[in-house]
Design brief:
Structural class: mainly alpha
Helix content: over 70%
Largest sheet: none
Shape: elongated
Number of strands: 0
Number of helices: 9
Radius of gyration: 19 Å
Strand content: under 5%
Order of helices and strands: HHHHHHHHH
Distance between the termini: 48 Å
Amino acid sequence: MTAPIPAQDLRIAEILGRARTAFAEKGFDGASMQDLARSAGMSVGNFYRYFPSKAAMVEALIAADMQEMQADFGQILNSPDPMQMLREMIRYRLYEEAACADDGRVWAEITAAAMRKPEIAALSAQMEQQITGHICTVFARVLGMVDAEAQQRFIGQAQFIVLMVKTAVMTTANTTSMHADLMVQVQRAIDRILDDVLATGKGSDDAR
């Protein structure tokens, strides 16, 4: 039986969910602590007990997203076909998250804030590095390499995939059809990268 989630954790998850909406609507700088407290249905004083600053809230948002991402990669590595599962996860992130306007706007706000606030830039970079590492681990598993070798050989490809997904999700297209076409092109580009990784890895195995 799965252990019940503590009420405190549920409350924090609820606060973060409402904060995403507030950041998406008003922006990182535009959303005051009063706005964030109001969105959570709390007094400002009580809200500060959970999050003493907006930077602390961004840290919690990134940690929550990273926890979800780690669970996704755990499923990928345990699947019969990790590369195919990776493709499906990327496709989901492109289409499902892009369809949720709040997520794209929040990440656009965090990215903009990272240019002004070193602590947020460090958190954002850490998350991207972890995702890049997870992708290289998938490559290592598929190609029968140790992680260090996959990191050395394919770190650029993994970083480019992360960049493309992040940029595409943050992009706001003028129309739904334009947005859908953009996602198709991004997916095709990522599929080509993954195909190249497979071909390169298998080619080097044949040469050994």
